[in-house]
């Protein structure tokens, strides 16, 4: 029988991953509405990755014989700031997700559940990579100093080039 505290925590994490997907899709819609299709593309790829993270937790619960329980996904914001402010918001959001995954990792150790601990290694690495990507984009937007040509260059030559893994 799978540990009930971990089952509850992972079900909550599934909801957080699906919310991340919804948040990034809302950001994609904002960029699409504001003539930055490259930034919108980046957000759509990220939204699909986050959906995949939720499904990865879902499949794990299924594999260990624990029940998945879905909950309502919170409404994402509809109004956003500048591209740099948006990526600062993304980084802050990812930091809360990292903290949440770390908390489940600590719980899996306290509950002596090595299979959950091992499964979380992938997510711990993924969070390091995501936070780095977000910091790099923030730095590049800082370099552009709000110059529209800099933002358009990033849109076409960086953000627009991202493809699903
Ligand atoms: Fe995620
Ligand atoms: Fe993420």
Commentary on this structure:
This protein is mostly helical. The protein is 76% helix and 0% strand. The protein is built from 5 helices and no strands. Helix 1 (4-33) runs antiparallel to helix 2 (37-63), helix 1 runs antiparallel to helix 3 (83-110) and helix 4 crosses helix 5. The two termini are 35 Å apart. The mean pLDDT is 97. The protein binds fe (ii) ion (2 copies). One fe (ii) ion binds next to helix 1 and helix 2.
Summarize the amount of helix as a percent range: over 70%
Instruction: Please tally the helical runs, counting DSSP H or I stretches of 4 or more residues.
Output: 5
Number of strands: 0
Mean pLDDT: 97
How much of the sequence is in beta strands?
under 5%
Nearest-angstrom radius of gyration? 17 Å
Low-confidence stretches: none
Bound molecules: fe (ii) ion
Q: What's the end-to-end separation, in Å?
A: 35 Å
General shape? elongated
The helix/strand order is HHHHH
The secondary structure category is mainly alpha
**How many strands, what sense, and barrel or not for the largest sheet?**
none
């Amino acid at each position: 029988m799978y540990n009930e505290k971990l089952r509850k925590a992972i079900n909550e994490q599934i909801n957080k991953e699906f919310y991340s997907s919804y948040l990034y899709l809302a950001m994609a819609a904002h960029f699409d509405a504001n003539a930055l299709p490259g930034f919108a593309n980046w957000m759509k790829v990220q939204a699909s990755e986050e959906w995949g993270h939720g499904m990865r937790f879902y499949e794990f619960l299924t594999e260990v014989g624990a029940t998945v329980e879905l909950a309502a996904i919170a409404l994402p914001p509809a109004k956003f700031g500048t591209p740099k402010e948006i990526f600062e918001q993304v980084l802050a959001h990812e930091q809360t997700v990292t903290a949440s995954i770390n908390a489940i990792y600590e719980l899996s150790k306290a509950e002596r559940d090595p299979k959950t601990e091992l499964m979380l290694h992938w997510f711990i690495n993924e969070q390091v990579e995501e936070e780095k990507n977000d910091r790099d984009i923030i730095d590049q937007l800082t370099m552009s100093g709000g110059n529209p040509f800099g933002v358009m260059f990033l849109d076409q030559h960086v953000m627009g080039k991202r493809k699903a893994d």
